[in-house]
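Course assignment 3, question 2. Fill in each field.
Student: A.L.
Task: Predict the tertiary structure for the chain below.
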Amino acid sequence: MKMLRWVAITALIFLGITSLIGAIPLIMDPSGRILRMPLSLLEHSPFTSFLVPGIILLIGNCLLSFVVLRFVLRKLPHYERWIVLQGCVLAGWLTVQIAMIRLLLWAHYVYFAVAVILILCGWLLRAGSPKPRINE
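Answer field:
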């Protein structure tokens, strides 16, 4: 169980830091030039710039992962469920992103793996945690 927790911690740190590295340039320059991302990527999306996707990335995959990391480090009640939630948020983000940009890149595979790792770690940690006793 300790190993699963550390795997989740590592995945959350990786996700939080790399999401911050991706979100800040999108927010600072919504044209995408800093990251060499053409606005044509957004052609099939409701967005005209990378500002809103950058803000969503910052909140959903950076800030949330650091909040979940804090829960895990403090071993707050039900922290396992928060790990699963972060994995699901990441998988949802990726699915929507791929559908909107209509392009599958190598990084999507890496982050889908992170999402699966988070979901599995949270699920297995939850399955292995002591269950509350029901008084009869």
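Instructor remarks: Residues 47 and 86 are 24 Å apart (CA to CA). The chain has a mean pLDDT of 95.
Grade: pending
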